[in-house]
């Protein structure tokens, strides 16, 4: 009995320990499993989710087009924080705020540039050796910013409206007819990938301001926009295999003969991307309305175009809105 009892004890105690150890090992296994990183899943559901996420990420543009309500609220809070109330309402009040170093009007700046060439400048044999892109004084004081019927800042409004309405992506192609001094175009150039902004412009002074001042001063030379001088609606120099996502003419067609506008539309219709592509014309479409509604619709249909509708867009900075007329490729 002693041996049997002893044997029983010697067997029973290790069994208990073994069971406890096994239980502890099992709990430890579960804990380590829960903490370990999950292996890649090759199931169809995960694959689909990954694909959708990747597509969504790569299709996003790098920066938003228009300010949000939160952006505007933040800016108003900063104005209040710095006690910047209503702006001055008189010339005298504005002059009282001009406390910069040696402040100058545009006219005074231009006079200084002509007389003194700037505060420090090279002369004689070295005069032309230190400026990579010599620029006329009239451009340096931005006189061309006043060559339009509305403030220079209105170009941002036009960009935001057109980019939003056309669902513009940075890889899209944009053609502006009459980009002038890039009041609008500079925003498209900055937003789009290099080489994706094209323009046909007739005015030599505007072209000079765009190429000699705006692109260098805005740091946009690397964007390589294609800006071509011409006034005959000849788009052949932009290439034959390009489909535009957006074509627009801001206050341009109303200054052209109707016949030339229709020539341009005929040449552009085939360059407009099906489904997505849009043509926007600002102010009025008298080239169309002078024909009468039915005749205009018929001529557009012959070109493979159709009228979408009339829209307006409010300015962000001043009490102004623009009227835009939208066209697209006719559905097959």
Automatic annotation (TrEMBL):
Instruction: Name all Methyltransferase type domain ranges.
Output: 175-274
Q: Where is this region: Disordered?
A: 45-67
Organism superkingdom: Eukaryota
Q: What is this protein called?
A: Methyltransferase type 12 domain-containing protein
Organism, as annotated: Ananas comosus var. bracteatus (red pineapple)
Low complexity bias: start-end ranges = 46-67
